Amino acid sequence: MKVVLQNLTKVFPSRNKKSGEEVVAVNDFTFEIPDGKLIGLLGPSGCGKSTTLYMISGLQKPTGGKIFFGDDDVTELSAENRGVGLVFQNYALYPHLTVKQNILFPLQNLKGADKLPKNQMLERAYEAAKLVQIDNLMERKPSELSGGQQQRVAIARALVKMPKVLLLDEPLSNLDARLRLQTREEIRRIQKETGITTIFVTHDQEEAMSISDMIVVMKLGVVQQIGAPQAVYDDPTNLFVAKFLGTPPINVFEGEVKAEKLYVGDSAVLDVPGVADQPVYVGIRPEGFIPDANGPLTCNLSGVDVMGRDVSLVTTHESSLNPVVRSIVDADAAKNANGITVSYSLKPHKVFLFNKETEERVYFEVK
Ligand code: ATP
Question: Atom of ligand 1 at shortest distance to CA of 13?
Answer without folding.
Answer: 29
